[in-house]
Design brief:
By secondary structure, the chain is mainly alpha-helical. It contains 15 helices and 5 strands. Helix 4 packs parallel to helix 15 and helix 8 packs across helix 9. The structure holds adenosine-5'-diphosphate and tryptophan.
């Protein structure tokens, strides 16, 4: 189904990737990339800049995300893994696309509107604290997507609107310049209905501080698992696996037999939460044993990661240059001289 498609996604380096990100985003993107004709996976460091002013944090998170994708099996012979900021063409295309992007479209962006609504509620100036990086965020994202002629863009539900904006902007450009230069990307939405729960039972998220980093130190992992909130049912009381955070997490790491065993033990009142937590800890540890080795080796060698990211950027720039050349020609009647 995807064998003729170009798959692309960006991940903002604004935190250490957690188990929710792994199950809901990293693994599905690796899977889609392996089925696609080609894939682009980039760390969206330019998109982090409207909120993060600490370059060290951006760089640390960039390495963590890159090492995570590599450790979990992204095939870099097919997928270009790179830093968004390593592609000069994306800054250029973003500026060019501004001219075919309605301001009204940007006004409707959820991320911007959320800030305006908050300000209005407080009686502040609607645009208080809003920089142009936030306001024009979807235009840069459209440039990211259109530069590589992406067809399929796997994203979380919160980013669907931005991919739709990329379609609007592409359509507007192709119409104004009467050319079929830019692609019509389709969002592929990662289900949030099955969101991985966090330590407190709500959706695992950076914003709730209830997450388990994918490659947490063994001691920290143990502490996190032991902290998972449960009800106060005794070991011999029947429990509902489908509302248990422990069981929900377990399903993503254990074998089918192990999952069936925990389910029936819960239902029959034959397993306490303490034992279940130990089984979960064991399953996560086994599942991530090999990837962890790769992850740690890579993080200890940032120069190796830089090299892989630079190779990915070189691969990505082939398409980026081609698209920018066509767009510049259509808009300015000449190719860029650089
Ligand atoms: P966070 O909520 O921690 O800020 P993001 O919004 O940055 O996470 O999500 C990045 C990606 O990870 C998205 O594709 C999103 O769908 C996925 N994701 C995040 N949290 C979860 C979760 N708890 N379960 C499943 N997928 C998740
Ligand atoms: N805006 C996305 C997020 O916050 C990250 C991103 C940047 C992206 N550029 C993209 C995602 C292009 C998909 C395609 O999660």
């Amino acid at each position: 189904m995807y064998s003729e498609k170009t798959v692309l996604t960006g991940i903002k380096p604004t935190g250490t990737p957690h188990l929710g990100n792994m199950v809901g985003a990293v693994k599905p993107v690796i899977e889609l990339s392996s089925q696609a004709k080609r894939a682009y996976v980039f760390i969206a460091d330019l998109h982090a800049l409207n909120a993060v002013r600490d370059s060290k944090a951006i760089n640390r998170n960039t390495y963590e995300i890159a090492a995570t994708f590599l450790a979990l099996g992204l095939d870099t012979t097919k997928a270009a893994l790179f830093r968004q900021s390593d592609i000069p063409e994306v800054y250029a295309l973003s500026t060019l696309l501004m001219n075919v992007t309605g301001k009204g479209l940007m006004n409707r962006s959820h991320a911007y509107k959320a800030v305006v609504d908050r300000n209005t509620e407080k009686g502040d100036d609607p645009d208080a604290g809003v920089n142009m990086g936030l306001f024009t965020y979807p235009t840069l994202m459209a440039a990211d997507i259109l530069l590589y002629n992406a067809d399929v863009v796997p994203v979380g539900q919160d980013q669907k609107q931005h991919v739709e904006f990329a379609r609007d902007i592409s359509g507007s450009f192709n119409h104004i310049y009467n050319k079929q230069i830019l692609s019509m990307p389709e969002p592929v939405i990662q289900e949030t209905a099955n969101a991985i729960p966090g330590l407190d039972g709500r959706k695992m998220s950076k914003s709730y501080d209830n997450y388990i980093p994918i490659f947490a130190e063994p001691g920290q992992l143990k502490k996190s698992v032991m902290r998972i909130v449960t009800d106060s049912k005794l070991p011999n009381e029947p429990k509902d696996p489908d509302t248990s955070t422990i069981f929900q997490l377990y399903q993503n790491f254990a074998t089918a037999d192990q999952i069936a065993f925990m389910r029936s033990s819960f239902v029959k009142g034959k397993m306490g939460y303490g034992d279940a937590k130990n089984l979960l800890l064991e399953a996560i540890t086994v599942y991530l044993e090999k990837p962890r080795e790769t992850y740690e080796t890579l993080l200890a060698q940032p120069e190796k990661l830089d090299e892989i990211l630079a190779q990915g950027a070189a691969m990505a720039r082939i398409s980026a240059k081609r698209t920018l050349e066509k767009v510049t020609k259509a808009m300015l009647g000449r190719s860029p001289s650089y």
